[in-house]
Specification:
Elements (H helix, E strand, L loop, with lengths): L2 E4 L22 E8 L2 H8 L4 E3 L2 E5 L9 E6 L7 H16 L9 H6 L8 H10 L28 H20 L3 H16 L2 H10 L35 H24 L11 H6 L21 H9 L11 E9 L3 H5 L1 H14 L10 H9 L17 E9 L2 E11 L2 E9 L8 H19 L5 E7 L15 E4 L6 E3 H10 L26 E3 L3 E3 H8 L4 H11 L1 H6 L1 E3 L6
Parallel strand pairs: 1-15, 9-10, 13-15
Antiparallel strand pairs: 1-2, 2-4, 3-4, 5-10, 5-11, 6-7, 7-8, 8-9, 11-12, 13-14
Helix pairs in contact: 4-10, 10-14
């Protein structure tokens, strides 16, 4: 059973500094201090708009806070990789393989040494076809046979005068050909011109001044390329379809392939109960009937298309080859209670956290010490559970560590819950921002949730924490498709595309439609009697009221309205003096 203490103030939530808009006293939250909480109770609280920071489980006081915070989650069964997200993965692969993230722009010899050799694999091409993104063109590569310098000698180069004479001769020859002159006449003209050039400079000048050609002398003809006559066509062929852009044609082909794959997958998943009827259209198409036997066993079943989850997992898998410049490893370690592997890497992980807070969030060194790290990201109220149903790990709190060449460069703080994986926080080494660790780690966590779902179908969501429309550091989460926001009044999830127009108009908005009933209503009479409380001993609130009167009536009522009646009957509320 969960054991919590409710943080209550009769005048309402106390305002404090907002971490999103940096206002000094405009942020308000409601929450409980969890001394111990089951993963099932925390899952239900998350679906009511709660998140945790250490052992403080809270939600925004939506109608009075400056920056309303909505829980966002992604359905991993419908998630599709975008083109930009796929580019991030390829950039990381390029860095692991070559030690760089961009194409080579150095000399030819450098390009030969570092030419990219990572063409699209069959899995990536199939992933692009499934996700609906266009397959990129292969990268331009330098020819390995191209010499580094051209074999040109200075002594063999023609002189400038020779080049001019050759050009003039060629031009004159072409002009004479156009004028209809013979070869002998052309040779005579060239001899006369050569004799003129053999004279001295003064003599040549005198001749050019004295022998001025008359105006009626015809000018030499200039060679012009004959123009082809324009053929008048009869217009577009009415028997052929009209021309369209190639981009639109490619989109239609991709959509058609995706539809065929989905149809094939659905056909294979359906039971063949209709084949028993000889008049069934399915049996007639398949060539089977009740009186005949199918003979397709020798040919074997047709190849089944890969699921998108498998394609994403293959794309994120980095082979450990010797020719790779860097090695990437991902490991999941339990942080509460602390496993031996977590203890061994504690100092290294804390150093990355400290560097991240001071560089990215501009915090002082005293504000990101070891005590803050433990309270914020290590200590957890979740009661760990043993793995069941073939799961590789049980429910609880973990750190997913990302290592590059054996050193930690990013850590994702995760909670594995009954309905999915929740990312509480991410910190990384700012020196590796060029590989976009936020996007890559999110894709890894989505892949982890997909692996869990194959073992346990109820785990089909990836929770990304809070979504804040007015904060650029938080609204990037809308780029992950198949995402949903939690309505703060109905506690139902709404597609984020329908929510953004409402949030742009008003920071706080009811996301669900008017036809959806509210999640919280007036408390039934006598509903507080069975609420589980604790003061010196566990008891119901009815028993507590009989012993101590109604001095805690308003606190219990507010607590039930915040966490919900169902959870108030499961969790035990501590009514004594709280020790945080």
């Amino acid at each position: 059973m969960s054991f919590v203490g409710y943080i209550y103030d009769p005048g309402g939530p106390i305002p404090f500094k907002c971490g999103y808009c940096k206002s000094p006293d405009t942020s308000r939250t409601q929450g409980v201090w969890a001394y111990g909480m089951t993963c099932r109770d925390y899952q239900d609280l998350v679906d009511r708009g709660f998140q945790r920071s250490g052992k403080y489980v809270y939600r925004a006081f939506m109608k009075r806070t400056c920056c309303p915070q909505y829980v966002i989650r992604t359905d991993v069964t419908k998630f599709r990789l975008s083109k930009s997200q796929r580019a991030v993965v390829r950039k990381l692969h390029r860095y692991l393989l070559h030690g760089r993230t961009t194409a080579c722009t150095n000399s030819v010899s450098d390009c030969k040494a570092h030419a990219p050799t990572d063409p699209l694999t069959s899995s990536e091409e199939e992933l692009m076809a499934t996700s609906g993104a266009a397959t990129p063109e292969p990268e331009a590569r330098m020819d390995s046979t191209l010499p580094t310098a051209l074999p040109i000698s200075v002594t063999n180069m023609p002189k400038a005068t020779e080049v001019q004479q050759r050009t003039a001769t060629d031009y004159t020859a072409s002009g004479n050909a156009a004028a209809g002159k013979t070869a002998e006449e052309t040779a005579g003209d060239n001899t006369a011109k050569a004799s003129e050039h053999s004279c001295g400079p003064s003599e040549t000048l005198t001749q050019s001044q004295s022998q001025t050609p008359p105006r009626d002398q015809p000018k030499p003809a200039v060679f012009k390329k004959p123009r082809k006559p324009v053929r008048l066509g009869a217009g577009a062929d009415p028997n052929k379809p009209p021309c369209r852009k190639a981009k639109l044609v490619r989109r239609e082909r991709r959509a058609q392939k995706l539809t065929e794959k989905q149809r094939d997958a659905e056909t294979k998943q359906k039971p063949h109960s209709a084949s028993k009827d000889p008049n069934s259209p399915i049996s007639s198409i398949a060539g089977c009937s009740s009186s005949s036997t199918c003979t397709t066993a020798d040919a074997g079943p047709p190849p089944q298309p890969k699921l998108f989850e498998q394609l994403l997992e293959e794309l994120l898998t980095v082979p450990s080859a010797e020719e790779y410049s860097h090695r990437l490893d991902v490991r999941l370690v339990r942080c509460s209670p602390r496993s031996q592997e977590f203890k061994d890497t504690f100092e290294e992980s804390f150093a990355v956290f400290k560097k991240f807070q001071m560089t990215i969030h501009k915090e002082q060194e005293a504000d990101c010490g070891e005590r803050q790290f433990l309270e914020f990201l290590v200590e957890s109220p979740l009661i760990p559970e043993e793995p069941t149903e073939g799961m590789p790990c049980g429910y609880g709190s973990y750190h997913q560590q990302y290592l590059l060449d054996g050193r930690i460069f990013a850590v994702g703080v995760l909670d594995i819950l009954p309905r999915g994986v929740l990312c509480e926080y991410l910190y990384y080494d700012p020196d590796y921002r060029f590989i976009a660790p936020g996007v890559f780690t999110a894709l890894q966590e989505i892949s982890l949730a997909q692996q869990f779902r194959r073992l346990k179908p109820d785990m089909q969501f990836y929770y990304m924490g809070f979504y804040v429309q007015s904060c650029p550091k938080m609204n990037y989460k809308s780029k992950y498709n198949a995402s949903y926001l939690l309505c703060p009044e109905t506690y139902t999830y709404v597609p984020i595309k329908k929510c953004i127009p409402k949030l742009l108009a008003l920071p706080y908005s009811r996301l669900a439609g008017k036809d959806v009933a509210d999640g919280d209503g007036p408390l039934p009479e006598g509903s507080l009697n069975d609420v589980q409380v604790f003061e010196m001993a566990p008891m119901t609130y009815e028993r507590y009221r009989a012993l101590h009167g109604e001095r805690k009536q308003s606190l219990v009522e507010d607590y039930v309205m915040v966490v919900g009646l169902e959870l108030a009957l499961r969790m035990r509320l501590f009514l004594g003096r709280m020790m945080l």
